[in-house]
Amino acid sequence: MKLSLVTVVYNAQDTIGQCIESVICQNYYNLEYIIIDGGSTDNTLQIINQYRSHISILISEPDKGIYDAMNKGIKLATGQIVGTLNADDYFADHEVLLSIAKAFEQQDIEAVYGDLDIINQHHQIVRKWRSGQCKSGSFNLGFMPPHPTFYCRRNLFEQFGFYSLEYGSAADYELMLRFIHLDKIRGFYLKKVMVKMRAGGISSKNLKNRTKAWAFDLKAMRKNKLMFPLLALMLKPLRKIIQFI
Question: Do 154 and 229 share a structural domain?
Answer without folding.
Answer: yes
